[in-house]
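Input structure tokens:
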């Protein structure tokens, strides 16, 4: 049977052609190459409007380059941060905002940038499924909460008349309550493990660091119970007098600790 044989040069030519074809097929065509900045912005807004945040991000990135040095580029940067946040890229969103704050310190949108950064860190504390597990913000790591508070505080201090300031102040109050309750949550954990001195120290930390927040009632109750468990009756009675003086109708003395179905933020 006759079999055709390819010469070495033919093999090389075919291999080169195959590689070239593969390279061409893997190179995506930039559909925005001939688009104006305004059209890119409109397309990105459409993607955001339809919930396709992941598709909007690269469009905003292209717009940043095409409209560099213009207010539209600054707008694109902020809207990209929002799209990153909504698509679950929180670390990238924070990095984008930090870059905006560094590059545009005099921008009229600084208040919004600070607000958005605060919201991203604020929501990072309480996941979208927390209502199913009944996990409240105080039971999670507080690093993001503290960073959120700082962003809101800077916004409220530098731009007290900003449209975002009222909401920022409300969130600040919630965060302060959360941070205090976090200390009490740890104190309660120590108490439940029989580490009464550690429980007292953590509860006293909440009392010394925070004022007029709901968590302090439970902090005092933990101190009362811990001193009682240690047999230190005089200190127990002193703590109980403080508790009843500040919270004359405290339900802790009547029913004990709140259960999981009765979270701390129900008092609001």
């Amino acid at each position: 049977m006759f079999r055709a044989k390819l010469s070495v040069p033919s093999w090389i030519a075919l291999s080169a052609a195959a590689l070239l074809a593969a390279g061409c097929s893997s190179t995506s065509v930039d559909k925005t190459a001939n688009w104006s900045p305004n059209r890119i912005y409109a397309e990105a807004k459409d993607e955001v409007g339809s919930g396709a945040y992941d598709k909007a991000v690269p469009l905003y990135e292209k717009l940043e380059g095409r409209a560099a040095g213009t207010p539209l580029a600054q707008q694109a940067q902020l809207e990209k941060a929002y799209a990153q946040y909504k698509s679950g890229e929180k670390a990238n969103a924070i990095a984008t905002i930090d870059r905006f704050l560094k590059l545009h310190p005099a921008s009229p949108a600084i208040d919004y940038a600070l607000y958005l950064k605060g919201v991203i860190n604020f929501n990072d504390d309480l996941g979208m499924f927390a209502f199913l597990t009944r996990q409240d913000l105080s039971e999670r790591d507080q690093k993001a909460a503290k960073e959120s508070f700082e962003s809101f505080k800077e916004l409220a201090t530098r731009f007290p008349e900003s449209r975002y300031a009222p909401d920022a102040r409300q969130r600040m109050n919630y965060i302060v309550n959360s941070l205090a309750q976090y200390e009490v949550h740890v104190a309660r954990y120590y108490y439940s493990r029989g580490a009464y001195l550690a429980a007292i120290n953590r509860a006293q930390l909440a009392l010394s660091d925070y004022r007029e927040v709901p968590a302090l009632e439970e902090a005092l109750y933990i101190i009362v119970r811990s001193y009682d468990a240690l047999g230190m009756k005089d200190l127990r009675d002193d703590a109980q007098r403080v508790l009843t003086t500040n919270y004359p109708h405290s339900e802790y003395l009547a029913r004990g600790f709140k259960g999981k179905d009765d979270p701390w933020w129900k008092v609001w």
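Residues 36-99 form one domain. Confidence is low (pLDDT under 50) at residues 1-9, 11-16, 125-135, 261-268.
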